[in-house]
Predict the structure.
Amino acid sequence: MTETLNYKYNSPSSLERKKGKENLLLSKFSEVNRGNSPCFFWGKLNNPYELSRCLIALSNTVQSSFNLSPFQLALLKDPIVTAGNNQIRFEGFSHCAGVYARVDVLENGQEGEFLENGTTNVDFNTPLISELGKIKKNDNLVLSIGREEVAFHKGGESFVERKVPLPSKWIKGLTTVQHYFSESDFALSMNKIQAIQLFKTIPAGKVKTDYFLIKRGSKYLFSPLKASNAACIGGIHRLKLLQPLIPLIKELKVFPHRDMQAVTFILCFDELNFVFSVSRDFWRGFSGEGAVLESLIEDLPSSLILAFDNYSYANQEFNPALLSFEEGIDISKVEMLSTKLSAMGLLGYDLSKNGFFYRRLPFKLDRILSLNPRLKGAEKLLEEDKVLITLKGDNEIEAKVEGSGIQHYVVVKGDFQKCTCTWFSKNQGERGACKHILAVKKKAKTK
């Protein structure tokens, strides 16, 4: 399996000045062709200064790594952009996939035309970032996602092509992040002054121990001492990526995961949000968590998934009951569909609205389904008939699974599940089910 998806751009992203206005042109790529428009969106941005700083912070996140070598760090990546439903979202991961960042341009944050709904990878090159840094508060900024017309280069001018490797763990990380978002709850909010004071308490250097967000009097601070109901943050030095934005915000909201597997910060600006989430530990990427693998063992007709993919549009709020009513699909199948779409990354999650939205990915569906080795391992165990269910009750399953020279025992009772394999013993279910549990659960569904 190839670990990267090579992107080709017809032209580089750029920021042009015409008649006193700034025009931000983002080159796009998609391996899925939808519609004939070469441009998703064209229009004026109402908060260009804040947006430019958020995009720089997003680019810094994408170019950061907290557990990779200098060689791996040199392989820069580009963010993903989604346009549709009167909203624009830019998102990306750090190289190690342990930090996720998203810039949400809200409906009132732009005045333009959505020529086509879709998601694509965009080119954030060094000259573009440099130009974004020159944007002032009174500048007029027009954003174009893709080119409005096709250009041909003649007379000695070359056709520009750029290849950008996109790691498969980015695609896998998109599935886990939204799952953790859906299991995160609002904990607290603070104003700009409180947020500035909070970020001054981030310790220097790389921190390997856990820190906790606590409140003393009217002030919030990060402390190595645990307190009741405090949000736990592993690898707190990663939050330094947010420091340039804190003086510009109106409000900071914190959403810890219910099992403390991640914590998310939402920086609120005028008609603009910056979403920033960190994994439980700095050496753990979202892509390897496997929290959604069990959702992928549900068997659904690929035609149903494809029909929904064609039916929906980017950033559309996902309403299972409405889809069931309008399309005449059994509600139980729609609920199963929503679970699998979430696990595939086709549904994102908006913490501000406490609901899913559709993300039309620029990747083919079979690419997403091919990126989970544990799921592949479970399928292989079933194909080789190495799973023997010894007990199956209404809420209980016991099974034997043949391994390499050893036999594993699996027990599933309600929400409790356990396997005798080394992988499960090491992770204790915190990073999703092992391949043996997945295989047992899938075989139990078919019996």
About this structure: The chain is about 25% helix and 30% strand. The CA atoms of residues 152 and 159 lie 7 Å apart. The longest helix spans residues 48-62.
